[in-house]
Amino acid sequence: MAISGGADPVKPPTERIVLLGATGEPAFAVDDKGCIIAWNKAIERLLGHPAGEVLGKGCAEVIHGTDVFGNLYCCDNCPVSQALRRNEPVNSFEMDVRNSSGSAVRVAVTTLVLK
To answer: What is the pLDDT of residues 24-76, one digit of tens each?
Structure first.
């Protein structure tokens, strides 16, 4: 996941699309409001949501993330987004997300701030 300050929630700058598309790892980016601005093919395969279905939607609406203890991550008060806004580092962690059929999928999360 990447947090970005992009102005247009559906059309991120080209370099961000290239960066996410160039990796075989599932990846997506959200803007500073938590709206999905980029979604690569690998995450489409993992979660079953085509990019056109999720771009512009809130991360919380699509990902439904919880950590291994059941704490909400993809929510209005996302602890990852809060830490990044305070310029604090976020250690990698695992969380469960929901795929398009509603089943839980365990993923490893690493954050990167794109400016």
So the answer is: 899 998 888 888 988 999 999 999 999 999 999 999 899 989 988 888 988 87
Dihedral sign of CA atoms 105, 71, 84, 6 in order: positive
Say how many domains are in the chain: 1
Task: List the domain range (segments joined by +) for residue 61.
Answer: 2-114
DSSP of 56-110, one letter per residue? TSBHHHHH--EETT--B-SSTT-HHHHHHHTT-----EEEEEE-TTS-EEEEEE-
The tens digit of pLDDT for each residue in 31-40 reads 888 889 889 9
Q: What is the CATH number of the domain that holds 21?
A: 3.30.450.20
pTM for the predicted model, two decimal places: 0.80
